[in-house]
Amino acid sequence: MTELLNPLLVAPDAVRAAAETELRLATMEPALRSNQLLSAVRGVALEDEDRARALARCLTRTGSSPAAVCVGLALLARVGEPQDVPFLVVLGGLRDFVSPAVYALDALDRQAAGAVWLGRHGEGPELRALVAALGAGDVGAVRGAMAAVPRDPALVLPETARRIVEAVRPAGLLDLGEGEPAAPRAELAARTGWLLFRATSLRDDRVEILHCSEAVRTYEAFVACAGELEPTLDHYALLLSAAFDLHSGPSRLHEWGPGRREALLVELESVLNRPAWRSVLEPAAEPGEGAGGVELRRFRWARSGMRQPFRGPAGLAGSVGLVGQAGPVGSDGAVGRRVLRIETVVRDPVDSDTVEVRMLVDGRPLVPEVFGRGPANSPEWLLDSGRLRATEEPRQVQLAEAYCTEGCCGALHVTIRRDGDQVVWSDWRCPPPPSSPLHTRRIPELRFDAVAYDAEITRAEMDHTWTWPARKVARLIVAGLRDRPDLLTRWGMELSWAGTDFRDPDRTALCLLYVGEDGSPKHLMWRLPEDGTPPEDRAAEALDRLATVDPRTYGA
């Protein structure tokens, strides 16, 4: 692509250069797809931006092939100006040019990009109504359609949530609502909080909140309205989820400025400490069995985690050591010994039971900053196994894996070793993170005070406050098998993994591997339902059964 475009990018006659570009693209073998063209043009050096802009405008306005128009759009993503936005919006209405037009608009006007993206990808009558209101520029209709956005994860994916926030800019709508009746404003605020929650989902190939240009303003507007929400379990979960993300999640990486993020946490804690909100989590308010498993799990999750995000600044509270220059993990100024803080965080159970070990270096969440393709690994993997402990013998540890699996989009690996009175994390292995100004491209060697490091790892390993009965049963079974490996080897089996059922987090699940009679590998899923007995008793019963009965007969 460089050889094709370089002579044309400096040509004085943009019309002739555009015609020549079309001819060259038509003879390319094999023809490139739009995403390949966007990537190729991104790497072309632009010596004369004015001539490159003139060529781009000719291609997008007079191009006679999709490839030519796509090259023009890719160039406008780099050298476009506000006057190009209306034309890009028109091109974005054509099916073949939605993605390249959004790509260009993302660099010029995120609000327009969001509207174009939703016009193509928004599903369901409610989102179609929102798109129509945005197109008409009717603020009242936009407010009504925004409040009606369905709280259906299947319809509102993480990117959909982020695009809605950028297209609607709910911070402005909530400001406009000052002095209006509390109910409509509170309804809009609740929907805004849910969209922020969806955008922070870790079950995607990237964390959308890191790419949200409106994140800071939207969090501030949402928290400003928190006190107007009706004190319900659902609203409590929204506020607590926002606190978790501002405290130790990806949203902490945004450019907040002095004290702004901390002020939001103070306000959230103040609201949740009001008597009406405290009553939401009183034991008498616990949902009955007839309310459904998710509601009961949300209640217990909120009760167990209601203090966690308000325990002081994550990354510093409870940690001891010499703090280097605060700043991004990859910044050249951060050369001293670092402070490590470990936070095991459980997301709201409506988000399919995501549990991760958040590692904060000088207060900044490490995994989203340097990886960003999935959550950090589970406490069972990193803490119960002792993988984060440091010895003189270097140990390579997988800290996180892409949501789609390591074989597809990679994983984050580090080598941990003890070096005198320091613990060193070095020799990083990971793919490039998704494109975002908040991601760090270069990961330096990190050094921690060994005494402080050991104390923090021990504290994190001993902290089981986050767990729930079914998960605790799994952890106790794993611990028992670690002490008595013969319980499985006698049956020619090994443990693949143990945890909770993806569809039912109140059911313990173990995956056992063995070789079948035909010589091929087999796996057996053993599920233990919640029966109300103490986790210690259920784990002991499971281990006793393994000691006497072949798991192949369990009927799983």
Largest beta-sheet characterization: 4 strands, antiparallel
Low-confidence stretches: 315-326
Largest sheet strand order = 4-5-6-7
Mean pLDDT: 88
**Count of strand segments:** 10
**Overall geometry:** globular
Class inferred from helices and paired strands: alpha+beta
Radius of gyration: 27 Å
Strand content: 5-15%
Distance between the termini: 56 Å
Query: What is the helix content?
Result: 40-55%
Count of DSSP helices? Answer: 25
Describe the structure.
The protein has 556 residues and is α+β, with helices and mostly antiparallel strands. Helix content is 47%, strand content 13%. The model is unreliable at 315-326 (pLDDT under 50). The strands form three sheets. The chain has a four-stranded antiparallel β-sheet. Strands 1-2-3 form a three-stranded antiparallel β-sheet. It has a three-stranded antiparallel β-sheet with strand order 8-9-10, covered by helices on one side. The protein has 25 helices and ten strands. The longest helix has 18 residues, at 182-199. It is globular, with a radius of gyration of 27 Å. It has helices at 2-9, 14-26, 34-42, 49-62, 66-79, 85-92, 98-108, 110-121, 125-136, 139-147, 158-168, 170-176, 182-199, 215-224, 233-248, 260-272, 275-278, 293-305, 366-370, 379-384, 406-409, 450-462, 469-483, 486-489, 535-548; strands at 340-346, 355-361, 364-365, 395-401, 411-419, 422-429, 446-449, 493-500, 507-515, 521-529.
Protein topology:
Blueprint: H1 2-9, H2 14-26, H3 34-42, H4 49-62, H5 66-79, H6 85-92, H7 98-108, H8 110-121, H9 125-136, H10 139-147, H11 158-168, H12 170-176, H13 182-199, H14 215-224, H15 233-248, H16 260-272, H17 275-278, H18 293-305, E1 340-346, E2 355-361, E3 364-365, H19 366-370, H20 379-384, E4 395-401, H21 406-409, E5 411-419, E6 422-429, E7 446-449, H22 450-462, H23 469-483, H24 486-489, E8 493-500, E9 507-515, E10 521-529, H25 535-548
Antiparallel strand pairs: 1-2, 2-3, 4-5, 5-6, 6-7, 8-9, 9-10
Helix pairs in contact: 1-2, 2-4, 3-5, 4-5, 5-7, 6-7, 7-8, 8-11, 9-10, 10-13, 11-13, 12-14, 13-14, 13-15, 14-16, 15-16, 15-18, 23-25
